[in-house]
Amino acid sequence: MSSRPAKRAVFEQFAADGITVMFGNPGTVEQGFLDVLEELPDFRYVLALQESAALGIADGYARATAGPALVQLHTGVGLGNGVGMLYQAKRGHSPLVVIAGEAGVRYEAMDGQMAVDLVAMATPVTKYATRVTHPGSVLRVLRRAVKTAMTPPRGPVFVALPMDVLDAETDEPALPSTIPSRATVPVPEELDRAAAVLRAARRPVVLAGDGVAVSGAQPELAALAEALGAPVWTVNCSELVIDTTHPLHRGDLGHMFGEHSAAAVADADAVLVVGTYLFPEVFPLLRSPFAEGCRIVHVDLDDYEIAKNIPAEVALAADPKPTLAALAARLGPARPLPGRAPAEPYGAGMMDLFAAELARRAPADLVLFDEALTASPALLRHLPPRRPGSYFQTRGGSLGVGLPGAIGIKLARPGSEVVGFTGDGGSMYTIQALWSAARYGVAARFVICDNRRYQLLDDNLEQYWRERGIASHPHPEGFDLAHPEIDFVRLARSLGVPGVKVSKPAQVESAVGRMLAEPGPFLVHLMTT
């Protein structure tokens, strides 16, 4: 391979890995390789006005493509702005490849402006973080980063690229990264042990998480649940792991309080845990919620998460898809399915009206990104997720992923109708993302569900009061978002995105029609209270 500057060679490496788009926000110490990017007609730079927005768009793109998404941040200040979204990506196992520049190795002892230990900053919120210090290893390190990001359990990685290293010559060849296959299945003896535990159960329960979606094991999960006749609870899922209209689907355990999980598994005599750890709540129980004698079978590719908090009788570090198929084959034919529970009566609130109208008009390829957590029950009553890849939800606890996540999904799937739902509070974390949608003509739709509060905090505080016997009283003033009132339509318009405010039931039908007919991005400001 002939010698060339490393700042040019990095793009050869990205191309070798099929990476042709970079999401970012530029800075001085990245100017050298961003200048090279302008000479590459087949490589696209998607500009965001803040690092959290760039990472949120990349997260949606990575989730929709199931491939690596490249993000450029601006040294320590940009990395600092993006830490919350990187935490979100880490908890959700998004394969982001994040790069950031710095002034140079030769300036290391100077403690100059913006000098910071980038690797130390990135390590807590990434799967792998490193810094390149020699031009002869730039491409090698980038391949290692892509491999690490994409090998299950996937996750974000970070590489610091000093400017003087990128300016130097390298003769490293650009080669495709190697992604090890982890499509593993346990040996027959271990499968037999797991099947024996499940076969003996009279009251089995299945707890499933996002690892099922990553593996593409949705059909196998449904088949195994049917063979057991076991109800399926999803555990803090952000993607579809089972058709939510399936008779055995019971809903999500939630992510806040361990008591919810305890109630779901209290009567189980055997539990199959697949693609998740137990239990990912903010306030998990400090004791096991399982009944004495309950037997646990745990299947996941993330061996760290297996039995992390609660021991398992059979612990299988394996790919859910072939493992569930092998277990179902051992358990025999499906048991009769229960009848579906009667549908909940639909409310007459604005969220129900809007979701019902969207369901009536929605195309078959509709994709939802759901960050409007307190509005989600109404949304899912009318648009229950049924197809893998058609529903994505926030994860990790970082607010602000709804708007940029929808943009990333639409960039990845330009032929699909993509609608992102967020709240009035969450939207303001990354409202700048609308500008990127307008700049690049990304025809995603955005719905801001405005209840003028951090409503989830109200709900959680009331739970806190109940647990401690505290009498109900007014919620903290800091939860209120009503004053001054945010005019989201004017704000969106200033960022290049048209929109409409919906505050009366009679406005819903025309708003949904206009939203779906718009050739570019469009925002609906939906008053839900």
UniProtKB/TrEMBL annotation:
SUPFAM superfamilies the UniProt entry points to: DHS-like NAD/FAD-binding domain, Thiamin diphosphate-binding fold (THDP-binding)
UniProt-listed InterPro entries: DHS-like_NAD/FAD-binding_dom, THDP-binding, Thiamin_PyroP_enz_cen_dom, Thiamin_PyroP_enz_TPP-bd_dom, TPP-bd_CS, TPP_enz, TPP_enzyme_TPP-bd
Domain Thiamine pyrophosphate enzyme central: residue ranges: 191-327
Cofactor(s) the protein needs: thiamine diphosphate
Thiamine pyrophosphate enzyme TPP-binding domain boundaries: 380-525
Transmembrane feature ranges: none
GO process terms (BP): isoleucine biosynthetic process; L-valine biosynthetic process
Domain Thiamine pyrophosphate enzyme N-terminal TPP-binding: 8-120
One protein family per Pfam: TPP_enzyme_C
Source species, domain of life: Bacteria
Record GO terms (molecular function): acetolactate synthase activity; flavin adenine dinucleotide binding; magnesium ion binding; thiamine pyrophosphate binding
Keywords per UniProt: Thiamine pyrophosphate
GO cellular component: acetolactate synthase complex
The keyword Protein transport is annotated on this UniProt entry: no
Family listed: Belongs to the TPP enzyme family.
Protein name: Benzoylformate decarboxylase
Species for this entry: Nonomuraea fuscirosea
